[in-house]
Protein backbone atom coordinates (compact mmCIF):
# COMPACT_ATOMS: atom_id res chain seq x y z
CA UNK A 1 0.00 0.00 0.00
CA UNK A 2 1.44 3.37 -1.04
CA UNK A 3 2.07 5.87 1.73
CA UNK A 4 -0.18 8.93 1.67
CA UNK A 5 1.47 12.39 1.80
CA UNK A 6 1.08 14.21 5.11
CA UNK A 7 -0.95 17.14 3.77
CA UNK A 8 -3.21 14.91 1.67
CA UNK A 9 -4.05 12.88 4.77
CA UNK A 10 -4.89 16.09 6.63
CA UNK A 11 -7.14 17.23 3.77
CA UNK A 12 -9.04 13.95 3.84
CA UNK A 13 -9.37 14.06 7.62
CA UNK A 14 -10.81 17.57 7.60
CA UNK A 15 -13.19 16.89 4.70
CA UNK A 16 -15.78 15.33 7.01
CA UNK A 17 -15.23 17.63 9.99
CA UNK A 18 -18.40 19.73 10.09
CA UNK A 19 -18.81 22.08 13.08
CA UNK A 20 -20.64 20.64 16.07
CA UNK A 21 -23.97 22.05 17.37
CA UNK A 22 -23.93 25.31 19.30
CA UNK A 23 -24.90 26.25 22.84
CA UNK A 24 -25.29 29.42 24.90
CA UNK A 25 -22.88 29.84 27.83
CA UNK A 26 -22.36 32.59 30.41
CA UNK A 27 -19.20 34.68 30.17
CA UNK A 28 -17.71 33.01 33.24
CA UNK A 29 -17.74 29.66 31.41
CA UNK A 30 -16.71 30.91 27.97
CA UNK A 31 -12.89 30.97 28.22
CA UNK A 32 -11.33 28.77 25.55
CA UNK A 33 -14.61 28.24 23.72
CA UNK A 34 -15.06 29.06 20.02
CA UNK A 35 -17.63 31.63 18.97
CA UNK A 36 -20.48 30.48 16.74
CA UNK A 37 -22.14 33.89 16.52
CA UNK A 38 -20.60 37.38 16.49
CA UNK A 39 -20.32 39.45 19.65
CA UNK A 40 -22.17 42.69 18.94
CA UNK A 41 -21.86 45.59 21.36
CA UNK A 42 -25.03 46.64 23.14
CA UNK A 43 -23.63 50.01 24.14
CA UNK A 44 -21.17 52.75 23.17
CA UNK A 45 -18.02 52.92 25.27
CA UNK A 46 -17.19 55.37 26.67
CA UNK A 47 -20.82 56.44 26.79
CA UNK A 48 -19.76 60.10 27.08
CA UNK A 49 -16.58 62.18 26.99
CA UNK A 50 -14.66 61.25 30.15
CA UNK A 51 -11.46 62.32 31.83
CA UNK A 52 -8.35 60.20 31.29
CA UNK A 53 -6.60 61.67 34.36
CA UNK A 54 -7.19 63.07 37.83
CA UNK A 55 -7.17 66.87 37.70
CA UNK A 56 -9.46 69.77 36.77
CA UNK A 57 -11.90 70.05 33.88
CA UNK A 58 -11.62 73.47 32.29
CA UNK A 59 -12.50 75.50 29.26
CA UNK A 60 -9.22 75.53 27.37
CA UNK A 61 -9.69 79.19 26.48
CA UNK A 62 -9.63 80.06 30.21
CA UNK A 63 -6.33 78.25 30.81
CA UNK A 64 -4.54 78.70 27.50
CA UNK A 65 -2.37 81.58 28.76
CA UNK A 66 -0.52 81.64 32.06
CA UNK A 67 -0.81 82.71 34.79
CA UNK A 68 -4.42 81.55 35.13
CA UNK A 69 -6.45 81.15 38.29
CA UNK A 70 -9.92 79.58 38.12
CA UNK A 71 -12.77 79.15 40.59
CA UNK A 72 -13.60 75.55 41.49
CA UNK A 73 -17.39 75.15 41.31
CA UNK A 74 -17.83 71.42 41.91
CA UNK A 75 -16.63 67.87 41.39
CA UNK A 76 -17.12 65.08 38.85
CA UNK A 77 -16.30 61.50 39.86
CA UNK A 78 -16.88 58.17 38.13
CA UNK A 79 -20.58 57.41 38.51
CA UNK A 80 -21.29 60.85 40.00
CA UNK A 81 -21.07 63.50 37.24
CA UNK A 82 -21.15 67.27 37.80
CA UNK A 83 -24.64 68.42 36.92
CA UNK A 84 -24.07 72.09 36.15
CA UNK A 85 -22.57 74.01 33.24
CA UNK A 86 -19.06 75.37 33.00
CA UNK A 87 -18.93 79.15 33.05
CA UNK A 88 -16.06 81.41 32.05
CA UNK A 89 -13.25 81.39 34.63
CA UNK A 90 -14.40 78.19 36.38
CA UNK A 91 -13.03 74.68 36.86
CA UNK A 92 -14.43 71.38 38.11
CA UNK A 93 -12.40 68.89 40.12
CA UNK A 94 -12.47 65.70 38.07
CA UNK A 95 -11.27 62.12 38.51
CA UNK A 96 -10.23 59.44 36.04
CA UNK A 97 -13.24 57.99 34.23
CA UNK A 98 -15.60 60.77 35.29
CA UNK A 99 -17.90 62.43 32.74
CA UNK A 100 -16.71 65.77 31.43
CA UNK A 101 -18.91 68.71 32.55
CA UNK A 102 -20.91 70.48 29.88
CA UNK A 103 -18.79 73.26 28.41
CA UNK A 104 -15.41 71.81 29.45
CA UNK A 105 -13.06 70.79 26.66
CA UNK A 106 -9.77 70.02 28.44
CA UNK A 107 -8.33 68.50 31.61
CA UNK A 108 -5.34 69.90 33.46
CA UNK A 109 -3.73 67.13 35.50
CA UNK A 110 -3.50 67.74 39.23
CA UNK A 111 0.32 67.78 39.19
CA UNK A 112 0.13 70.94 37.07
CA UNK A 113 -2.13 72.81 39.49
CA UNK A 114 -2.02 74.41 42.93
CA UNK A 115 -5.27 74.39 44.92
CA UNK A 116 -6.04 76.95 47.64
CA UNK A 117 -9.62 76.78 48.89
CA UNK A 118 -12.02 77.38 45.99
CA UNK A 119 -9.26 78.65 43.71
CA UNK A 120 -6.93 76.60 41.55
CA UNK A 121 -3.82 78.02 39.90
CA UNK A 122 -3.04 76.48 36.50
CA UNK A 123 0.70 75.90 35.98
CA UNK A 124 0.55 74.19 32.55
CA UNK A 125 -1.41 75.72 29.65
CA UNK A 126 -4.51 73.75 28.61
CA UNK A 127 -5.19 72.65 25.04
CA UNK A 128 -8.58 71.51 23.67
CA UNK A 129 -9.08 67.75 23.94
CA UNK A 130 -6.16 67.22 26.29
CA UNK A 131 -6.57 64.18 28.62
CA UNK A 132 -10.09 63.42 27.37
CA UNK A 133 -11.39 60.02 26.27
CA UNK A 134 -14.01 60.70 23.62
CA UNK A 135 -17.44 59.05 23.60
CA UNK A 136 -17.29 55.92 21.46
CA UNK A 137 -13.51 55.99 21.39
CA UNK A 138 -13.36 52.30 22.32
CA UNK A 139 -16.38 50.94 20.43
CA UNK A 140 -19.91 51.89 19.40
CA UNK A 141 -23.30 50.30 19.96
CA UNK A 142 -24.00 47.77 17.21
CA UNK A 143 -20.32 47.26 16.40
CA UNK A 144 -19.14 43.68 15.80
CA UNK A 145 -16.37 43.13 18.34
CA UNK A 146 -15.61 39.43 17.88
CA UNK A 147 -16.37 37.17 14.91
CA UNK A 148 -17.41 33.50 14.65
CA UNK A 149 -14.55 31.02 14.66
CA UNK A 150 -12.61 33.02 17.26
CA UNK A 151 -11.33 31.14 20.33
CA UNK A 152 -12.14 33.23 23.36
CA UNK A 153 -9.26 34.50 25.48
CA UNK A 154 -9.40 36.16 28.89
CA UNK A 155 -9.22 39.63 27.36
CA UNK A 156 -12.07 38.79 24.96
CA UNK A 157 -14.34 38.08 27.93
CA UNK A 158 -13.54 41.48 29.39
CA UNK A 159 -14.38 43.09 26.03
CA UNK A 160 -17.71 41.26 25.80
CA UNK A 161 -18.60 42.19 29.37
CA UNK A 162 -17.83 45.87 28.77
CA UNK A 163 -20.11 45.70 25.72
CA UNK A 164 -22.97 44.63 28.05
CA UNK A 165 -23.01 41.07 26.66
CA UNK A 166 -23.66 38.52 29.41
CA UNK A 167 -23.57 35.22 27.49
CA UNK A 168 -22.23 33.94 24.20
CA UNK A 169 -23.15 31.39 21.53
CA UNK A 170 -20.31 28.92 21.11
CA UNK A 171 -19.75 25.54 19.50
CA UNK A 172 -20.16 22.54 21.74
CA UNK A 173 -16.91 21.10 23.05
CA UNK A 174 -15.85 17.95 21.14
CA UNK A 175 -16.07 14.79 23.21
CA UNK A 176 -12.95 12.67 22.82
CA UNK A 177 -12.56 9.06 23.94
CA UNK A 178 -9.07 7.59 24.40
CA UNK A 179 -8.61 3.84 23.99
CA UNK A 180 -5.21 2.20 24.51
CA UNK A 181 -4.16 -1.27 23.37
CA UNK A 182 -1.33 -3.62 24.33
CA UNK A 183 -0.66 -6.52 26.71
CA UNK A 184 2.52 -4.77 27.80
CA UNK A 185 0.83 -1.62 29.12
CA UNK A 186 0.37 -0.78 32.79
CA UNK A 187 -0.74 2.40 34.52
CA UNK A 188 1.76 4.82 36.08
CA UNK A 189 2.40 3.95 39.71
CA UNK A 190 1.44 0.29 39.29
CA UNK A 191 4.99 -1.00 39.66
CA UNK A 192 5.79 -2.12 36.11
CA UNK A 193 7.98 -5.15 35.51
CA UNK A 194 10.92 -5.16 33.10
CA UNK A 195 8.72 -6.74 30.41
CA UNK A 196 6.03 -4.10 30.75
CA UNK A 197 5.61 -0.55 29.44
CA UNK A 198 4.07 2.29 31.43
CA UNK A 199 1.17 3.88 29.59
CA UNK A 200 2.08 7.47 28.67
CA UNK A 201 0.35 8.25 25.37
CA UNK A 202 -3.03 9.15 26.83
CA UNK A 203 -1.51 11.86 29.00
CA UNK A 204 0.19 13.77 26.19
CA UNK A 205 -2.60 13.14 23.68
CA UNK A 206 -5.25 13.97 26.26
CA UNK A 207 -3.48 17.20 27.18
CA UNK A 208 -3.28 18.27 23.53
CA UNK A 209 -6.99 17.50 23.11
CA UNK A 210 -7.99 19.48 26.21
CA UNK A 211 -5.83 22.43 25.14
CA UNK A 212 -7.68 22.33 21.81
CA UNK A 213 -11.02 22.65 23.64
CA UNK A 214 -12.14 19.02 23.98
CA UNK A 215 -13.63 17.05 26.85
CA UNK A 216 -11.56 13.87 27.25
CA UNK A 217 -12.53 10.45 28.61
CA UNK A 218 -10.01 7.66 29.24
CA UNK A 219 -11.70 4.48 28.00
CA UNK A 220 -9.06 2.12 29.33
CA UNK A 221 -6.54 -0.43 28.04
CA UNK A 222 -7.45 -3.34 25.78
CA UNK A 223 -5.43 -6.58 25.66
CA UNK A 224 -4.01 -7.98 22.43
CA UNK A 225 -7.03 -10.19 21.84
CA UNK A 226 -9.36 -9.80 18.88
CA UNK A 227 -12.59 -10.53 20.74
CA UNK A 228 -11.65 -8.13 23.56
CA UNK A 229 -10.54 -5.47 21.09
CA UNK A 230 -13.78 -5.73 19.12
CA UNK A 231 -15.82 -5.53 22.32
CA UNK A 232 -13.85 -2.51 23.54
CA UNK A 233 -14.14 -0.72 20.20
CA UNK A 234 -17.86 -1.48 20.06
CA UNK A 235 -18.40 -0.09 23.54
CA UNK A 236 -16.39 3.07 22.78
CA UNK A 237 -18.26 3.68 19.52
CA UNK A 238 -21.59 3.22 21.28
CA UNK A 239 -20.61 5.96 23.75
CA UNK A 240 -21.03 8.46 20.92
CA UNK A 241 -17.74 10.32 21.15
CA UNK A 242 -17.18 12.95 18.51
CA UNK A 243 -13.65 11.60 18.16
CA UNK A 244 -12.44 8.16 19.22
CA UNK A 245 -8.65 8.04 19.50
CA UNK A 246 -6.87 4.70 19.74
CA UNK A 247 -3.18 4.40 20.55
CA UNK A 248 -1.19 1.31 19.60
CA UNK A 249 -2.06 -1.62 17.40
CA UNK A 250 -2.23 0.53 14.27
CA UNK A 251 0.38 -1.32 12.23
CA UNK A 252 0.10 -4.69 10.46
CA UNK A 253 1.80 -7.10 12.87
CA UNK A 254 0.19 -10.20 14.35
CA UNK A 255 -0.75 -8.24 17.49
CA UNK A 256 -1.97 -5.12 15.68
CA UNK A 257 -5.70 -5.71 15.94
CA UNK A 258 -7.19 -2.22 15.94
CA UNK A 259 -7.75 -1.80 12.19
CA UNK A 260 -9.61 -5.11 11.71
CA UNK A 261 -11.57 -4.50 14.92
CA UNK A 262 -12.66 -1.06 13.72
CA UNK A 263 -13.65 -2.37 10.31
CA UNK A 264 -15.62 -5.22 11.89
CA UNK A 265 -17.65 -2.65 13.83
CA UNK A 266 -18.55 -0.61 10.75
CA UNK A 267 -15.80 2.05 10.77
CA UNK A 268 -14.90 3.20 7.26
CA UNK A 269 -11.15 3.74 7.24
CA UNK A 270 -10.01 6.44 4.81
CA UNK A 271 -6.28 6.39 5.57
CA UNK A 272 -3.98 3.67 6.79
CA UNK A 273 -0.25 4.55 6.57
CA UNK A 274 1.04 8.10 6.05
CA UNK A 275 4.41 9.16 4.68
CA UNK A 276 5.76 10.76 7.84
CA UNK A 277 8.39 10.07 10.45
CA UNK A 278 7.70 9.44 13.27
CA UNK A 279 4.21 8.05 12.84
CA UNK A 280 3.81 6.03 9.63
CA UNK A 281 1.23 3.60 11.14
CA UNK A 282 -1.55 6.20 11.34
CA UNK A 283 -5.16 5.58 10.39
CA UNK A 284 -8.43 7.42 10.50
CA UNK A 285 -12.00 7.00 9.38
CA UNK A 286 -15.60 7.68 10.30
CA UNK A 287 -18.40 5.80 12.01
CA UNK A 288 -22.02 6.70 11.36
CA UNK A 289 -24.59 6.27 14.13
CA UNK A 290 -27.92 7.72 13.15
CA UNK A 291 -27.52 11.26 11.88
CA UNK A 292 -24.25 11.69 13.76
CA UNK A 293 -20.69 10.87 12.75
CA UNK A 294 -17.84 9.83 15.00
CA UNK A 295 -14.34 10.44 13.76
CA UNK A 296 -11.88 7.66 14.51
CA UNK A 297 -8.17 8.38 14.71
CA UNK A 298 -5.72 5.52 15.22
CA UNK A 299 -2.38 6.72 16.53
CA UNK A 300 0.86 4.72 16.71
CA UNK A 301 1.89 3.12 19.98
CA UNK A 302 5.32 4.72 20.22
CA UNK A 303 4.81 7.75 22.49
CA UNK A 304 6.71 10.28 20.39
CA UNK A 305 4.92 9.12 17.24
CA UNK A 306 1.57 9.39 19.02
CA UNK A 307 2.32 12.92 20.20
CA UNK A 308 3.50 14.14 16.80
CA UNK A 309 0.51 12.58 15.02
CA UNK A 310 -1.90 14.07 17.57
CA UNK A 311 -0.34 17.47 16.98
CA UNK A 312 -0.59 17.08 13.20
CA UNK A 313 -4.05 15.52 12.97
CA UNK A 314 -6.05 15.44 16.21
CA UNK A 315 -5.58 19.12 17.09
CA UNK A 316 -6.66 20.42 13.64
CA UNK A 317 -9.63 18.02 13.65
CA UNK A 318 -10.81 19.29 17.03
CA UNK A 319 -10.48 22.89 15.89
CA UNK A 320 -12.49 22.21 12.75
CA UNK A 321 -15.25 20.56 14.81
CA UNK A 322 -15.48 23.82 16.77
CA UNK A 323 -15.91 26.00 13.70
CA UNK A 324 -12.30 27.18 13.43
CA UNK A 325 -11.09 27.58 9.86
CA UNK A 326 -8.19 25.14 9.54
CA UNK A 327 -5.88 25.15 6.50
CA UNK A 328 -5.52 21.68 4.94
CA UNK A 329 -1.75 21.71 5.38
CA UNK A 330 0.70 21.59 8.23
CA UNK A 331 1.28 25.20 9.46
CA UNK A 332 5.06 25.45 9.14
CA UNK A 333 7.18 28.47 10.06
CA UNK A 334 10.56 29.60 8.70
CA UNK A 335 13.80 29.17 10.64
CA UNK A 336 17.52 28.69 10.00
CA UNK A 337 19.71 25.65 10.54
CA UNK A 338 22.36 25.82 13.24
CA UNK A 339 24.14 22.72 11.84
CA UNK A 340 24.41 20.77 8.61
CA UNK A 341 21.69 18.17 8.02
CA UNK A 342 21.64 15.10 5.79
CA UNK A 343 19.39 14.50 2.79
CA UNK A 344 15.96 13.12 3.63
CA UNK A 345 14.26 10.06 2.16
CA UNK A 346 10.67 9.57 1.03
CA UNK A 347 8.83 10.39 4.28
CA UNK A 348 8.20 13.88 5.66
CA UNK A 349 10.44 13.98 8.73
CA UNK A 350 9.59 15.77 11.99
CA UNK A 351 12.80 15.92 13.99
CA UNK A 352 12.88 17.01 17.60
CA UNK A 353 14.99 20.17 17.72
CA UNK A 354 16.04 23.00 20.02
CA UNK A 355 16.16 26.73 19.38
CA UNK A 356 19.76 27.76 20.07
CA UNK A 357 19.72 31.40 18.97
CA UNK A 358 18.57 33.76 16.26
CA UNK A 359 19.89 34.74 12.86
CA UNK A 360 18.46 37.41 10.56
CA UNK A 361 15.32 37.58 12.67
CA UNK A 362 14.64 33.84 12.42
CA UNK A 363 15.10 31.19 15.13
CA UNK A 364 18.26 29.15 14.80
CA UNK A 365 17.45 25.45 15.29
CA UNK A 366 19.51 22.35 15.90
CA UNK A 367 18.07 18.82 15.76
CA UNK A 368 18.71 16.72 18.84
CA UNK A 369 21.22 13.93 18.23
CA UNK A 370 18.81 11.05 18.96
CA UNK A 371 15.47 10.83 17.12
CA UNK A 372 14.13 7.45 18.34
CA UNK A 373 10.32 7.54 18.43
CA UNK A 374 10.20 5.84 21.83
CA UNK A 375 12.36 8.38 23.68
CA UNK A 376 10.19 10.86 25.57
CA UNK A 377 13.18 12.57 27.19
CA UNK A 378 14.20 13.85 23.75
CA UNK A 379 10.69 15.12 23.03
CA UNK A 380 10.56 16.85 26.41
CA UNK A 381 13.84 18.69 25.68
CA UNK A 382 12.70 19.85 22.24
CA UNK A 383 11.40 23.34 21.53
CA UNK A 384 10.13 22.70 18.00
CA UNK A 385 9.95 20.05 15.32
CA UNK A 386 12.41 20.55 12.47
CA UNK A 387 10.51 19.54 9.33
CA UNK A 388 12.30 17.93 6.40
CA UNK A 389 10.25 17.53 3.24
CA UNK A 390 10.29 14.21 1.35
CA UNK A 391 13.48 13.81 -0.69
CA UNK A 392 14.89 17.12 0.63
CA UNK A 393 18.57 17.44 -0.27
CA UNK A 394 21.30 17.89 2.31
CA UNK A 395 21.40 21.42 3.76
CA UNK A 396 24.11 23.48 5.40
CA UNK A 397 24.17 25.51 8.58
CA UNK A 398 22.68 28.95 7.97
CA UNK A 399 20.25 27.81 5.29
CA UNK A 400 16.53 28.38 5.79
CA UNK A 401 14.42 25.49 7.01
CA UNK A 402 10.89 24.84 8.27
CA UNK A 403 9.72 24.20 11.81
CA UNK A 404 6.50 23.25 13.57
CA UNK A 405 6.07 24.68 17.08
CA UNK A 406 5.28 22.23 19.86
CA UNK A 407 2.06 24.00 20.87
CA UNK A 408 1.83 22.76 24.42
Automatic annotation (TrEMBL):
Q: In which pathway does it act?
A: Cofactor biosynthesis; molybdopterin biosynthesis
Transmembrane feature ranges: none
What is this enzyme's catalytic activity, as reactions? adenylyl-molybdopterin + molybdate = Mo-molybdopterin + AMP + H(+)
Q: Residue ranges of the MoaB/Mog domain?
A: 177-320
Any idea of its EC number? 2.10.1.1
Functionally, this protein is described as follows: Catalyzes the insertion of molybdate into adenylated molybdopterin with the concomitant release of AMP.
- Record protein name field: Molybdopterin molybdenumtransferase
Amino acid sequence: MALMPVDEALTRLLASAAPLPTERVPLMDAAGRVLAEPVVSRRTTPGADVSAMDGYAVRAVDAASLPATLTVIGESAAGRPFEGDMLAGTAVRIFTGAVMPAGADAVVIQEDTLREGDLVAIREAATPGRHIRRAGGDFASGEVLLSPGHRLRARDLALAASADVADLTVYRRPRVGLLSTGDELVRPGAGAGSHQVILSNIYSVGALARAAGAEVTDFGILPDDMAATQAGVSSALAAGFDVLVTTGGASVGDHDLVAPALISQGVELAVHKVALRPGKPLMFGTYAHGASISHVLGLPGNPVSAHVCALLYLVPLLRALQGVEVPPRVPLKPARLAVDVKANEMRMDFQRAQIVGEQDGLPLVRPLPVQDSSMLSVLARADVLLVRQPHAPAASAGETCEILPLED
